[in-house]
Amino acid sequence: MMIYNKTYLLVPRVVRRVFTLALLTLLPMGMNAQTVDDDEDEPDEEDEITVVDQSGNEEVIEFPEAMTYDLDSLLNLYMAKTYLDEPQDCNMKDVNPEYSREEYVERLYRMPCVMEMSYNDVVQKFIDRYSGRLRRSISYMLGASNFYIPIFEQALEMYQLPLELKYLPIIESALNPKAVSRVGAAGLWQFMPATGKQYGLKLNSLVDERRDPVLSSLAAARYLRDLYKIFGDWNLVIAAYNCGPENINKAIRRANASTAKTAKAADGETTAPVTDYWHIYPYLPRETRGYVPAFIAANYIMTYYSLHNICPMPTRLPAKSDTVMVSRNVHLEQVAEVVGLNIDLLRSLNPMYRRDVIPGASEPSPLRLPLTEVGRFLDLEDSVYNYKVNELLNRRAEVEVNDDVPTYYHKSKRYVKRKSSRYSRRSKYSRSRSKVSRSRSKVVRKKSSTRRRSAKRRSSRRRR
């Protein structure tokens, strides 16, 4: 984890990037769920806030990535275009009223929740962001919450978790099921691939269950439950959801070590370890320092939006849907054309299929349809599978090799050169071997002739 201070921020950006790349080559990296590392490119000034502490020191805090999304991209989603309208009948003035510090403290304290919703200057900065610059995005999310909040509440209730956690996807994805972060987290709950697979979410070239609202909500509830078993504090759970439990444990150790060192220097006694989010706050990654304040601000603005003159977008809830299981590969365009449905509607109901292909041949896979169209699909199921199957599903199960035409090999210059050099090496070797063999044969012949001459001399002496 990189700790940013004022000296580091005064260094030119190019030098900072070189320093960051050097660290990346020296330090081992691990990706956690929803982790956004501090060594990313520096954000724009619009994506960060500056807070001044009691000592007059300035601190720069990043906004969560979802707070920087463009509203136009959210309004281009099928659900927004089809079931959300601009609040034309809103009689409120588009003005954000000013309230005193005591009023914010009282409202947060009065909220019916289990989790601690404390107030400070950092939380106030995020409330001002939501109620000011992001007020139209809040209007969108208030309308879109009619689709997603019941799903979140059902998953949280199943695992007996605080229902305040239903607003976590607001700061994770701005309620966009197809959102993908700059580090690869995806879906409403922004699961990283490794964490998604750990909690049973399928991920391959065709299927990404992190984008499925129901499956990802159940996985997120289990993950939050497991984090609470580790830390026992919901603010630490929220922080760990963002940067991973390893970084939280590291921040706890550093904070307690610093506190113990200060206390020992003051009175010679050690203090008991403290596990509190605001205690370890200075030792957290840069974005995580703003994550819990953003979560508190999201709960505040979704509860007291009317006090800030924010009107929800009027909604027309979609028709009820149901699921059928398909056991063959099918393209969403096949279903849309034969059954007579809007392809964008099918994509919105089935956001997990990345390339509009349902891989039913691998294993039975769900296809979510409007409830009124389920019977029609079952009646036309064979026609759906056969419609443009060679165009939309052109994967060949078996291919033939053309053996009628002789195969030609292209010999490159490098191949010829390598082959000639190999032959030249072999010829040199054979020539050297032949020379050695000839020399050896000469030596043998010479020795044999010498033996014959000596034998003749001995025989001639005997005759004498």
Would you kindly provide a written description of the structure presented here, covering whatever features stand out?
It is a single chain. This protein has helices at residues 6-10, 13-26, 71-75, 78-83, 101-110, 121-131, 135-158, 168-173, 193-198, 213-231, 234-243, 245-267, 277-280, 291-303, 332-339, 343-349, 374-379, 381-386, 389-392, 413-463, and strands at 48-52, 58-62, 321-326, 329-331, 357-359, 365-370. The protein is mostly helical and 464 residues long. Strands 1-2 form a two-stranded antiparallel sheet. Strands 3-6 form a two-stranded antiparallel ribbon. A two-stranded antiparallel ribbon has the order 4-5. It starts with 5 loop residues before the first helix and ends with a helix. Residues 1-45 have low confidence and may be disordered.
